[in-house]
Amino acid sequence: MGRLDGRVAVITGAGRGIGAEVARCMAREGASVVVNDLGASMDGSQSEGTPADAVVEEICRAGGKAVSNGCNVTDWDATEALIAQAVDSFGRLDILVNVAGIIRDGMIFKMDEKQFDSVIAVHLKGTFNTTRHASVYWRENRGGQYRIINFISGSGLYGSPTQPNYAAAKMGIVGLTNSCASALVGYGVTANCIAPVAFTRMTESLAGKSTVMDYSPDNEKISVANVVPPVVYLASEQSEWLNGRIIQAGNGRIGLFNSPAIEREVTTPGVWDMGVAFEEMEGAFKEAVVYPNPFRKPKS
Ligand SMILES: NC(=O)c1ccc[n+]([C@@H]2O[C@H](COP(=O)([O-])OP(=O)(O)OC[C@H]3O[C@@H](n4cnc5c(N)ncnc54)[C@H](O)[C@@H]3O)[C@@H](O)[C@H]2O)c1
User: Fold this and answer.
1) Mean of the pLDDT values across residues 32-41?
2) Mean pLDDT, the chain, as a whole number?
3) How many domains does the chain have?
4) How far is it, in rounded angstroms, from Cα 264 to Cα 287?
5) How far is the CA of 13 from the centre of ligand 1 (A)?
6) Does residue 202 have its Cβ closer than 6 Å to ligand 1?
7) Residue 298 pLDDT
8) From ligand 1's centre to the CA of 21, what distance in Å?
9) What range does the domain containing 89 cover?
10) Is residue 88 part of a domain?
11) Is the predicted pLDDT of residue 210 greater than 90, yes or no?
């Protein structure tokens, strides 16, 4: 018995890296999967092969059920067809995993418009496209145990200095996920984020450089296999209690991020006097603001 027997999943960006491992593992757990991947170079500027076909072949050889889709997630019509392909091929859609991604790094003062727009298009618009089309199907077929699982990043949560485009796209996905978590729960859909860490082509340049983690191909803790268990959990019917949250996955850890909440506040009965607001903010907040991220330490 698989943990996802009878369930149908669409996984974007599943030709390589984490997405491919999610597809293989979901198929092993009994899901029928639509493996989407455009075969993009890491900056999204070129197509390189047909990695989705290779993953489908591998899954089918191992006795699983999978079909391939090569669409670009930024394409509205093509993503509508991607969702339809799941229903046409396997009769239903239960799980949508948005993994597709590119990076085009640069400091904010050097970033051009194309660098920004292209990264927003793949991550944020791509996630919106698939989610919007899937939500139409789920609204028409309410009563299932439907799941949206969106890949985000510590880059946005903590503020990577060289990735303003990527950080913004990923935090946009957090807002999109929260909105869907509220809007769709009545239709049986939960929506959560995964913040992964794994050794893939996206992170291989960090090998030997990161002070936080050992990113190297022979560190099994940082393998893509360590990202997958919480993703499969979220995809299963068992996770219906979990909605609108961010789960950390990778490096041997599964974490639950806290939800944004007011930590401290100061109040006034009327309209703030500017001087009082300055004083009260410093008095109440300053000692609570720590700099756990080395990138964000103020100059001393
Ligand atoms: N690897 C990490 O440590 C890490 C950390 C934080 C977040 N992430 C996120 O996890 C996800 C997977 O990353 P990965 O490390 O496996 O990267 P990867 O580059 O190995 O895989 C990404 C896949 O997305 C595909 N893709 C790109 N643009 C596409 C498009 N327009 N349409 C369809 N497919 C497209 C690529 O062809 C590629 O196969 C990404 O969203 C990434 O931002 C990864």
Assistant:
1) 97
2) 95
3) 1
4) 11
5) 6
6) yes
7) 66
8) 12
9) 8-256
10) yes
11) no
Spell out the residues 6+ positions from residue 133 whose beta carbon is closer than 8 angstroms to its own. Answer: 79, 80, 82, 83
Confidence (pTM): 0.96
Number of H-type helices and E-type strands within the chain:
9, 8
CA 131/CA 89 separation, integer angstroms: 19
The 95-98 sheet, strands edge to edge:
65-69, 32-36, 8-11, 95-98, 146-151, 189-196, 246-250, 253-256
Q: Is 40 in the pocket of ligand 1 (CB under 6 A)?
A: yes
Q: What CATH number is associated with residue 119?
A: 3.40.50.720
| Residue 282 domain flag | no
The residue count for the chain: 300
Task: Kindly indicate the confidence band of residue 199, based on its pLDDT and cuts at 50, 70 and 90.
Answer: very high
Residue 174 lies in a domain: yes
Angle CA 71–246–134, to nearest 5:
35
Tracing tokens 């339809």 back to the chain, one arrives at 84
* 187: amino acid identity, one letter: Y
Is residue 293 domain-resident?
no
